[in-house]
Amino acid sequence: MTGALWCVVPAAGRGTRVGGMCPKQYLPLAGRPLIEHTLERLAAHPQIAGLLVTLGADDARWPGITELNGKRVMTAPGGAERSDSVLAGIDALPATVGQDDFVLVHDAARPCVRLADISALIEQGCAKDGGLLGAPLRDTLKRADAAGCSAQTEPRDQRWRAFTPQMFRRGQLASALRAAAKDGRAVSDEAMAMELAGYAPLLVEGAEDNIKVTTAADFPLAAYLLSRIVT
Ligand SMILES: Nc1ccn([C@@H]2O[C@H](COP(=O)(O)OP(=O)(O)OP(=O)(O)O)[C@@H](O)[C@H]2O)c(=O)n1
Ligand SMILES: C[C@](O)(CO)[C@H](O)COP(=O)(O)O
């Protein structure tokens, strides 16, 4: 069992795959900026103590939220890559968050995460070296060739899609991210940094509607999911 956890929310991306000038986390979703849905959902979780949001340089769009549902909301400058933003957020956490305390990392671009899935990650991940939400691949996987044709069918067994939140001990995650950066290794998520450091993060199956809003087509889907998912 663990106490209350802080959650780092990387929100310093540019949203280039959506297009346009406004980073996707500030585009409207169901009438409000996408990021507000994500932060409110995280702040609603009883085991989340506070949020540390990493922002783009000179981000004028950040609405200046300092508290949600009685939880403190802090900000820190993000970095060039998502992993840089995550590390910046870890380093900016309050000193009350110990090096051995678990911390969560959740994409600002994932507004539909279920509170029950966060609870499952916290409960199951604390018994291990931490873990991440994900789901086993349910479709056949193809490797495309340069012409956009199916060149090969990839093995699907034991393949999972990785979601967020991901949860690790503050000190171990910071060290793993620093080591990967020092080695020039691009890491797509926190779990990869931990794997490179020799840990085996637990995969905790979560709902597949925990989508990452990545392209413009994801906005109406996310709006529908938000209307259907209570928590
Ligand atoms: N340097 C970066 C890059 C991404 N992110 C955040 O990481 C999350 C997931 O990243 P992604 O979906 O790739 O967002 P973007 O990088 O903004 O998207 P794109 O690759 O289309 O530009 C998002 O909440 C994004 O804001 C971040 O904090 N810092
Ligand atoms: C961290 C992540 O959400 C796991 O699926 C994903 O890797 C982030 O998206 P990106 O496009 O790789 O930045």
Automatic annotation (TrEMBL):
GO terms, biological process: isopentenyl diphosphate biosynthetic process, methylerythritol 4-phosphate pathway
CDD domains per UniProt: CDP-ME_synthetase
Reactions catalysed according to its record: 2-C-methyl-D-erythritol 4-phosphate + CTP + H(+) = 4-CDP-2-C-methyl-D-erythritol + diphosphate
Transmembrane segments: none
Site (Transition state stabilizer): residue numbering on this chain: 17, 24
Gene3D superfamilies the UniProt entry points to: Spore Coat Polysaccharide Biosynthesis Protein SpsA, Chain A
Function: Catalyzes the formation of 4-diphosphocytidyl-2-C-methyl-D-erythritol from CTP and 2-C-methyl-D-erythritol 4-phosphate (MEP).
PANTHER family linked to this entry: 2-C-METHYL-D-ERYTHRITOL 4-PHOSPHATE CYTIDYLYLTRANSFERASE, CHLOROPLASTIC
Protein name (record): 2-C-methyl-D-erythritol 4-phosphate cytidylyltransferase
Organism: Rhodanobacter fulvus Jip2
Gene encoding the protein: ispD
